[in-house]
Structure formats: structure tokens, C-alpha cells
Write a structure and sequence with these properties.
With 119 residues, the protein is an alpha+beta fold. 30% of the residues lie in helices and 39% in strands. The protein has a single domain, classed as Trna Endonuclease, Chain: A, domain 1 (3-Layer(aba) Sandwich). The protein contains two helices and five strands. The chain has a five-stranded mixed sheet with strand order 1-2-3-4-5.
Length: 119
């Protein structure tokens, strides 16, 4: 497996662990619809958190969250719409990014809530 794929998988697991530690319930991982993949669908209180995980081996080329592009956001929204309709949900939805940067042997994890409002 390519090194960037391994880093991505590690990042998603770190994000899941981080969310669980912060009292989120993980509902679904890697939900796919059309051209989109939703990394994590989680719930906390009455909010359905749609979480895009961005992991980088370095911040030299920018913050991980800077790599979420408008077209990707559009596809994620479409996928989440489908998920909510399929599951007949009536919940408040929030789009978050968990940005992870490898720093030596450690990882810096930042949880950006309502992240897509910043675009």
C-alpha cells in the first residue's frame, strides 16, 4: 500500500479515537454515494457531525483543512443528503474537519467544527 494511503488510514483511526474520547458516537465510516466518500458520520447530542479527515505528513505545504475543495464539499453535501433521506433522519447536521499533522512520532489533531462555513 502506498505510504500516503497508510497515513490516511492512520489519520482516520486517530480521528475516530479522538471523537470517541470526546463523547461522539461513530455511526458510519467511509459512506459512499456517487462521487463522494464521507469519512466519518458521528453523532453527539442531537447533532449529526459529518467529518472529513485530512492527514498530512507535514504542514510545509499548508494546513490539512486547506485541501478541502469546493467541489468536494458539494459532493459531500449531496452524499449526506442521500444518507439522511435513506435513513429517514430528522437531525441538525454539521460539517467538521479533523485536521491531523504528523509531528515527529506524534500527531497534532485539530477538530474544526462547522468547517465549511469558512470557505
Amino acid at each position: 500500500m502506498a505510504q500516503h494511503n497508510e497515513l490516511g488510514k492512520k489519520g482516520e483511526q486517530l480521528a475516530v479515537d479522538f471523537l470517541l474520547k470526546n463523547n461522539y458516537i461513530i455511526i458510519e465510516q467511509n459512506y459512499r454515494f456517487d462521487k463522494a466518500e464521507v469519512d466519518i458520520i458521528a453523532k453527539k447530542d442531537e447533532i449529526l457531525a459529518i467529518i472529513e479527515v485530512k492527514t498530512r505528513s507535514t504542514a510545509d505545504f499548508g494546513n490539512p483543512q486547506d485541501f478541502v475543495k469546493p467541489k468536494q464539499i458539494k459532493n459531500l453535501v449531496k452524499a449526506v443528503d442521500k444518507y439522511i433521506t435513506e435513513n429517514n433522519l430528522d437531525v441538525e447536521v454539521r460539517f467538521d474537519i479533523v485536521a491531523i499533522v504528523k509531528e515527529g512520532n506524534d500527531f497534532n489533531i485539530e477538530h474544526l467544527k462547522n468547517a465549511f462555513y469558512h470557505f
